[in-house]
Amino acid sequence: MSKDIEKIESAYEILEKNKHSVYFLTYDTKNNARAAIKHIYDMALTLRRYGVDAKILVEDNTYTKVNGWLGKTYDEIPVVTIKGDKTEVEVYDMIVVPEQYSNILEQLKSIKCIKVMLIQQKEYMFETLPIGSRWSDFGFDKVITTTELSKQYILKYFPETLVYVIPPIIGDNFKPTTLPTKPLIAISARDRVQHRKVISEFYLKYPQLRWITFRDMVQMTYDEFSDNLKECMVSLWIDDESTFGTFPLESMKCGVPVIGKIPFNEPDWLSENGIWTYDGDKLVELLGEFILGWLEGLEMDKEVKSKMDETILPYEKSITENNIITIFESLKSGRLESIKKALEKRKLEIQEEV
Description:
It is a single chain. By secondary structure, the protein is of the alpha/beta class. It has two domains: 2-169 and 317-353, 3-Layer(aba) Sandwich (Rossmann fold), CATH 3.40.50; 182-315, Rossmann fold, CATH 3.40.50. The protein contains eleven helices and twelve strands. The protein has helices spanning 2-16, 35-50, 67-70, 105-108, 148-157, 192-205, 222-230, 246-253, 283-295, 302-312, 317-353, and strands at 21-25, 53-58, 79-81, 94-98, 114-119, 142-145, 162-165, 182-189, 213-216, 232-238, 258-261, 275-277. The strands form two sheets. The protein has a seven-stranded parallel sheet with strand order 3-2-1-4-5-6-7, with helices on both faces. Helix 4 (105-108) links the parallel strand 4 (94-98) and strand 5 (114-119). Helix 2 (35-50) packs across helix 11 and helix 6 packs across helix 9 (283-295).
């Protein structure tokens, strides 16, 4: 009987001393830049620098590492495989599972660690989750998401969960250029059909502006992305399925005005900080009016510029990093409390048996 107590006490000590591991289950982007993956790596890196053994957990050794587009900053995060490394998750460990992996929750049901869902794309919450299932059916009663709106939506359908908000980090490499901006339009569109459509419409409606170039913000490293973005005179954002939306904030941090279609899920930061429309058919006209004004030397409205500066303040790197540490400490404290109760209960049972 004393071995039971020793095992529980050992788990408590390991967790209390930050000797546990936090596993972030991550899918392979095949070297394609994804804000969702950077968000995961940022959480892992922040925890490691705080003294927590955070790791990236992948399916097998065919996983393509992110240094091709994120650089060497994240090399200190170990990448472990489920199959090759035969990774074992202990009761004091933590596993964070993105919504894309909802189809494997059944396989994780028997694992008794701290289980956390990561909801980055609200629209995909139910895509691979068995119909009618609750995350709690598989032992997942804690959730991390990126916006307050998403949190409220989650609580509507999963009221038994504890939901925390950790927005993506908007890197410090996004900053205004000291050089004159160029006649370039930074375009970010999830749907490549929409991407092609809006460019075609623009050149047909404004043939005199065919010399203006659209800069496609894909297939770039993170540093190339920020360097290319800050050169542009305006950003165009089309992403109906976005839950958070890093591109507009990255643009604002570079001092680049944003024209965009408001997504289905209005982000927390949306305000009079850009030129917004619910109607995608109006984007070309809004873009044309902006560029014609830019060519005439008209400057950005001071109120919009002020709103842009206000918008990015809550997403400063240090604020988000502190938020990450606080939330994961809270998750740890909750497990420590449950282990403590289990220990007290077991001791009581032994006394009664005696």
